[in-house]
Every structure is written in C-alpha cells, then in structure tokens.
C-alpha cells in the first residue's frame, strides 16, 4: 500500500477510483499535519478543483514544505497551477478556457499525441529556472500542459488523467433511482 496525503480542492470521484485502483491509501489533509503521518507518507497528491490558483495562497507554504523535504508530489489541474506558482511560473488567464474530454496534447520527447479531459481557465508560462523533462503541449494553443522535474520528485499535469472522465462520475444516479424504486 502506498500512503499519500490528498490536498483536496475538489477532487472528482473518478480520481479517487483511479488512486484506489492503483493501490494508494489516501489520507485527506485537514488543517494541521500530524507529525507521525509524515513518517508514513510516500507522497502528496494535490487535486483538481475550481477557480483561480492565486486564491489558494494559504496552501502555498504547506506545499512548499513537501517540496523542500522532497516527498514525491503529483499535482493535477488546479493543483498543477498552484504547484507551478510555487516553482516560480507565471499564471495567466486563457482567452478561451480548456474544457472538454477531447483536448489533444503532444509529448514533445516521445512524439506522441494523447486526448485528455480538461476543465480550466488558467495556465502557466514556461520559465527559465525549471529543469524540464517530458514536455506536453496543447495542440489547440501550444500552452504548456505539465512540469516534471529531474531535480525534485514532482509531476504536475494540467489535464485530468482518469481513464473514464465524465460519464462515470454520475453512476451514483442509479443508486438514487434504486432508493426511490425500493420505497
């Protein structure tokens, strides 16, 4: 079992399912970190969520602490943007946000194209201070889609990597229907 701390800004159900399927045990971050939990942690997951990443400034020092002690970090969408700000990237608002399940991105190093699910209005600009590895760019507008570091254990990705985005998130509808039917 891999123990991760979830900093949850609005994690989708599909993301939880993917983490559990990949044998992660999830501790959700509340307000304070129990020092004993730090000894159990294998990593930190910073989730997706809504809004402007600059509005989550109260979490910057917490995430910076994990970067400093070199606990592996995986950041998705809003988490990617927040982690990028901490790593001195400039954030900008997109003219047209990236929304939908067929957003094409390209891995420059492997010369591969992937279709991703995306739902955000902000993005990051490449900076000169970061050592890049495995760069992904949007094929719609050439925006940077990830940062991976060879120096620190960090993977950040702009899209949502769930294997089945969208439709499976509302499978709970069938449970609600069953509850009505059984009354």
Automatic annotation (TrEMBL):
<feature type="domain" description="Glutamine amidotransferase">
    <location>
        <begin position="33"/>
        <end position="176"/>
    </location>
</feature>
<keyword id="KW-1133">Transmembrane helix</keyword>
<feature type="transmembrane region" description="Helical">
    <location>
        <begin position="59"/>
        <end position="79"/>
    </location>
</feature>
<dbReference type="InterPro" id="IPR050472">
    <property type="entry name" value="Anth_synth/Amidotransfase"/>
</dbReference>
<dbReference type="Pfam" id="PF00117">
    <property type="entry name" value="GATase"/>
</dbReference>
<keyword id="KW-0315">Glutamine amidotransferase</keyword>
<dbReference type="GO" id="GO:0004088">
    <property type="term" value="F:carbamoyl-phosphate synthase (glutamine-hydrolyzing) activity"/>
</dbReference>
<keyword id="KW-0812">Transmembrane</keyword>
<comment type="similarity">
    <text>Belongs to the CarA family.</text>
</comment>
<keyword id="KW-0472">Membrane</keyword>
<dbReference type="InterPro" id="IPR029062">
    <property type="entry name" value="Class_I_gatase-like"/>
</dbReference>
<comment type="pathway">
    <text>Amino-acid biosynthesis; L-arginine biosynthesis; carbamoyl phosphate from bicarbonate: step 1/1.</text>
</comment>
<dbReference type="InterPro" id="IPR017926">
    <property type="entry name" value="GATASE"/>
</dbReference>
<protein>
    <recommendedName>
        <fullName>carbamoyl-phosphate synthase (glutamine-hydrolyzing)</fullName>
        <ecNumber>6.3.5.5</ecNumber>
    </recommendedName>
</protein>
């Amino acid at each position: 079992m891999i123990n991760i701390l979830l900093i949850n800004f609005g994690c989708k159900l599909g993301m939880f399912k993917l983490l559990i399927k990949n044998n992660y045990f999830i501790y959700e971050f509340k307000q304070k970190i129990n020092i004993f939990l730090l000894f159990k942690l294998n990593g930190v997951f910073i989730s997706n969520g809504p809004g402007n990443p600059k509005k989550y400034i109260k979490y910057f020092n917490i995430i910076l602490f994990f970067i400093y002690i070199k606990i592996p970090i995986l950041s998705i969408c809003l988490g990617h943007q927040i982690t990028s700000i901490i790593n001195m990237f400039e954030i900008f608002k997109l003219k047209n946000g990236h929304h939908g399940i067929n957003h094409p991105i390209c891995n420059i190093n492997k010369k591969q194209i992937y279709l991703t699910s995306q739902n955000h209005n902000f993005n990051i600009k490449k900076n000169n201070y970061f050592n890049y590895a495995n760069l992904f760019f949007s094929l719609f507008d050439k925006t940077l889609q990830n940062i991976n570091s060879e120096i620190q254990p960090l993977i950040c990705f702009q899209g949502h990597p769930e294997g089945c985005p969208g439709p499976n998130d509302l499978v709970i509808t069938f449970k609600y229907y069953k509850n009505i039917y059984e009354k």
